[in-house]
Amino acid sequence: MTGKVLSVASECAPLLKTGGLADVVGALPGALGQQGWDMRVLMPAYRSIALPGARALWATDDLFGGPAQVLPLTVDGAQILLLDAPHLFDRPGGPYSVDGADHIDNPERFAALSWAASQIARHGLSDGWQPDILHAHDWQAGLAPAYLAYGGPTGVRSIMTIHNIAFQGIAPAAQLGALRLPAAEFHADALEYYGQISTLKAGLITADAITTVSPTYADELMRPEFGMGMEGVIAARASRLHGILNGVDTDIWNPETDPAIARPYGPRTLKRKADNRAALMQEFGLSDVTGPLAIVVSRLTDQKGIDLILAALPDFIVAGGGLAVLGTGDPALEAALARAAAQFPGRVGLHIGYDEALAHRMFAGGDAVLVPSRFEPCGLTQMYGLRYGTLPVVAATGGLADTVITANAAALDAGSATGITFHPTDALALSQALRRLAGVYADPARWAALQRQAMRQRVDWTTSSAAYATLYRTLLT
Q1: Alpha carbons within 13 A on the beta-carbon side of 439
Q2: Among 124, 167, 122, 118, which Cα is nearest to 144's?
Q3: Domain shared by 169 and 225, yes or no
Q4: What average pLDDT does the segment 183-205 reach?
Q5: 155 and 288 together in one domain
Q6: What is the rounded distance in angstroms from the CA atom of residue 182 to the CA atom of residue 177?
Q7: What is the pLDDT of residue 288?
Q8: Structural domain containing residue 24
Q9: Are 85 and 49 in contact (CB under 8 A)?
């Protein structure tokens, strides 16, 4: 059995991306298409996205304060539905904020996205397409399953996917009516969340199934240290919770064909990776790195453990290591990294911002990628590292624990290791992991074998898309 799926999200690569959510939403239509599912993605038509000259497939005169229409667009074979609502999305800044401050009407903006999704799910599009399943992603689409549930019986089933439970879509209780939510549902077992509205909770309590982006993260979410106040909600719906690991696009992330890197290479031509390392060192102004060259491609936040890297850095430098960082985030962490680059000239390089081509060059040229996250629902950077033979050094949490096999003695002897994991998530454990990294790097034959094993690990969407397809079929039977 197959069917039609409406995927609803605030961003989708390559049209707009602020993080891994966009990569996943962009990859799912193709991956599920190979399983026989017809998926379309509904997302806002932000100012940065050129509108297609196509006939509207859905329209309304009043979508939370103004007219709106849905326009079809095909991007890299994926069917995108752009929600054109200028009063909500045609504005400067990013999708969620401008000049560092959230758009004040974010609750209404993404309620509008969810409302449109629910109406399309309930009534279909003018071309006759109507989904069998509504698949909502994160808090921005959390009200879509709620609107569907509160609107009366329908044959459409719904799924809520948690990409990061730290972002919960909080709105004042006074906005209940403005958000078109039933006042009778404002209680602790439904929409009420510590006296406010949480659009994420709305999705969690109304969806027919809940997924999150790795099996370990699914388990962690029922613990207070990871559930971010939602652990009780998750635990109450544990029978409907599924942990399905993300994948990556292995056509885009492929060191054998990557046009962005200095010299293509693969498991059988690993010696060519040295040319990429040399090019990366030159680009970041690095020299005299006799040990492993570590990279960080990340949002610069405490959640990502950037402060732990700073604490462990001096010992790593003494051991011969080097560090190249690409990212943006907390100004205090940006400043601390800049001070580290000044303290260790030629050994630490920093690029504040984001550059997709540079990220590819970093994965090709680095020896290791550091991901010491305090929590990590799935993580994609460690998968890119595996793909490029750039060994992940990761905290043993969430999807990091699910994707990296640590290089202990037994795993090394068995030829199954793919990187290094550490626990607990603190500076001491990271320092110990970096010493282990340097120790393996000092043995060229073992290091090369570890790289090849990492590159052989499957990180594409084959297994995960099959798991989604199975879940979809289960909901429809």
Answers
A1: 12
A2: 118
A3: yes
A4: 97
A5: no
A6: 7
A7: 87
A8: 4-247+461-476
A9: no
Tokens encoding 265 = 């290479």
Report if residue 254 sits inside a domain. no
344 falls within a domain: yes
Task: Give the contacts of 331 (CB within 8 A, at least 6 positions apart).
Answer: none
Output the six-digit token pair for 113. 């996205």
- 258 assigned to some structural domain: no
Identity of residue 196: Q
Say whether both 221 and 354 belong to one domain. no
Strands 420-422 and 368-371: unpaired
Read off φ and ψ for residue 12, nearest 5 degrees.
-155, 125
* Total count of domains within the chain: 2
Name 266's Cβ contacts closer than 8 Å, sequence gap at least 6. 255, 256, 455
pLDDT tens per residue, range 266-314? 999 999 999 999 999 999 999 989 999 999 999 999 999 999 999 999 9
DSSP conformation class of 271: G
Q: What angle do CA 409, 411, 417 make, to 5 degrees?
A: 120
287 within 8 A of 346, measured Cβ to Cβ: yes
CA distances from 45 to 12, 41, 42 (A): 11, 12, 9
Q: What are the structure tokens assigned to 133, written together?
A: 């399943």
Cα distance between residue 79 and residue 75, in whole Å: 7
pLDDT at 1: 80
Residue 260 lies in a domain: no
Q: What percent of the chain has pLDDT above 90?
A: 97
Instruction: Transcribe 175-242 into DSSP letters.
Output: GTTTTT--GGG-STTTTEETTEEEHHHHHHHH-SEEEES-HHHHHHTTSHHHHTT-HHHHHHTGGGEE
